[in-house]
Fold this sequence. Notes:
The chain is 60% helix and 11% strand. By secondary structure, it is an alpha/beta fold. It folds into four domains: 35 residues; 141 residues, D-Maltodextrin-Binding Protein, domain 2 (3-Layer(aba) Sandwich); 91 residues, Periplasmic binding protein-like II (D-Maltodextrin-Binding Protein, domain 2, 3-Layer(aba) Sandwich); 223 residues, Orthogonal Bundle (MetI-like fold), CATH 1.10.3720. The strands form five sheets. It has a five-stranded mixed beta sheet. A three-stranded parallel beta sheet has the order 5-1-6, with helices on both faces. A three-stranded antiparallel beta sheet has the order 2-3-4, covered by helices on one side. The radius of gyration is 29 Å and the shape is elongated. The site of glutamine has 12 residues, from loops.
Amino acid sequence: MNLYLMLKQIRRLSWLRHLGLGLVVCALMISLSSFRVNSQTPQVLKVATEPTFPPFEMQSEDGSGLQGFDIDIMNAIGEAMGVTIQFEGLPFDGIIPALQSNTIDAAISGITITSARAQSVGFSSPYFKAGLAIAVQENNTDIESFDDLTNKRIAVQIGTTGAMEANKIPNATTTEFDSAVLALQELVNGKVDAVVNDGPVTLFAIKEAGLKGVKVVGELVTEEFYGIALPKNSPNRQLINYGLFTILENGAYQSIYQKWFAGEPLQLPLIAPAMEGAAQELATSIQQQQPQQSVFIQLLTRLPQGALLTVLLTTFSVFFGMIGGSLIAFALISPNKLLRTICQIYVEFFRGTPMLVQLFIIYFGLPALFQNLGIQWSLDRFPAAIIALSLNVAAYLAEIIRGGIQSIDQGQWEACQSLGMSPIQTMQDVIFPQAFRRILPPLGNEFITLIKDTSLTAVIGFVELFRQGQLIVASTYQAFEVYIVVALFYLLLTSSSSFLFKYLEKQMNPLSKIKKSA
Ligand code: GLN
């Protein structure tokens, strides 16, 4: 049934002919409003949204708050319900776990109603009709439909219907980003062949936000309906539906729609088609008892892969960071003032800016800059992550190493000099070995910090330990269990490295050598 048209027609038709139908709708409204009066209506409704999904939700231009179609719709619904809406920003893949744990009352974020999601959360009636679209670079001629995506590199937003559809394409490599904007940036930078994302959002990015070098091909791939998500069995569901029906009826919905999409609203069903088969799917999945087992298997197979990448990333970064850090440390204590100043600026920059920002500059920023200069250049994820981490670690290690070297008594330099040793020989054979033993504890700290910081590379789509966990949550919605196991994996890695560093410290302690030989 088309809800919007139904309400419109009721208004137009003569009351005598449609008295019966009118009475049914009145009864529905009265029962919902009596529900509103009788039940404990909340004063404030905490509603989550992921505000990088224009034109549905985004920061307003002056940065003062949120704006967008969803924001207006939710505020109008709140007004109809007599409730104040308090918006909270959350990452898209965190919305369903937050609803499951009841930390928020509802979420409006262009969330497609799917039968899989309906097993974990509740949904209002649909409030918008959308669908997935394929975006490619403007000069691309070989992708025209979904079938052409086989064997292609695709960027998507994590936990979305776009990601679910892209993961079904045979032999395609899918990279998942935190937001649709980053996925599109990846396409602009030429690192993927296509982006699968909600059509209205991609079109808005191209037409309104001025995204260059990208076009949408073919028809919408799917037909999807957005709903307001709620915790399962939430008492607010009927209230929200009441608010939605009210704004559909009183014309508020239509004017909000026209404000953002300049056209007539599309037809909305009372129940999303995806939900019609939901009950049956739920019954089948309960019968098969698949979900529990599959999380367990996914954890066992995917987390070790992620952990391996985390270890590789840390080891490479500490290795290069150590080389760079030592060179900078030598420069910092060199007599050359210019060299010292350059290295001081380097250290200040890399210690004084967030690693996340450095990662974004190297992975997204530099290729975009080169594109603008007409140079085709980009970095793969792995080298980009290693470069960013190594540059950052080198700054910290430089200071640690400099401190270690300067802690060695000046008299040793003089002693070596009187023995006829060159400064390089002195540093290599006398000073550095002693300094190295002293810097082992802070080096161990750096290593452990880095193991944890590698999780930042998830933002550039790098599938290390944390991202593997996020991906499992995105398909299973079992946030607590998955993240606890992820934390245990990190703990295993950090405690093994602190054990390793303690062992190294012991090995390098001259006293322990004397004891052994005695
Ligand atoms: N409609 C898509 C989904 O529900 C994407 C939503 C979003 O990224 N905000 O998966």
